[in-house]
Specification:
Ferritin, 170 residues, mainly alpha
Length: 170
């Protein structure tokens, strides 16, 4: 039980750090589309934190005995289409903004990949099937975010670098 407590505490810290990252960089990105995505992710990371904290509190601070649901709704992963077709496109006059936004998007998808890997790795270390499923679902959430940001990154990299984007993509 101590292992699960540590996992949940660390997961809450990760989600809070994610929220702080998106809050800060929502103000830094220049592309209005990226700004909208980051603002949405602030809310999503806050929801993730609250979701995990609720499970944590149910386990460690509840005085009543009751069943805890470890089910995670995996349909929450956002898709770019929810933001409409308002993505701003780059032009030669804003190359500095492009490079800055690209670096921030790259950090975002790397962070989400780290979160996904963390949840997947700790899921492999727990025996309880319900908790394992809970952690695997969190991993899926974060992988969805990583894929979303990587898609934005690739799209904007192609817009800014044209035929040379293959030099930067995996």
């Amino acid at each position: 039980m101590k292992k699960l407590k540590n996992i949940l505490k660390f997961a809450m810290r990760l989600e809070k750090q994610g929220e702080n990252f998106y809050t800060y960089y929502a103000e830094q990105v220049k592309n209005p589309y990226n700004k909208k995505v980051f603002e949405k992710l602030v809310s999503i990371e806050r929801d993730h934190y609250n979701f995990i904290k609720k499970r944590y509190d149910e386990l460690y601070y509840s005085t009543e005995l009751h069943d805890i649901s470890w089910v995670v709704d995996t349909t929450e992963v956002i898709h770019p289409s929810i933001f409409g077709d308002a993505a701003a496109h780059f032009n030669d006059s804003n190359i500095d903004d492009m490079v800055s936004d690209l670096a921030i998007l790259r950090m975002a998808y790397t962070i989400e990949d780290d979160f996904s890997t963390f949840y997947k790795t700790v899921a492999e270390k727990v025996d309880d099937a319900a908790i394992k499923g809970f952690l695997e679902a969190l991993s899926t959430w974060e992988k969805g975010h990583k894929d979303l940001f990587y898609g934005f990154y690739k799209e904007q990299l192609k817009d800014s670098w044209g035929d040379f984007e293959h030099l930067f993509l995996k």
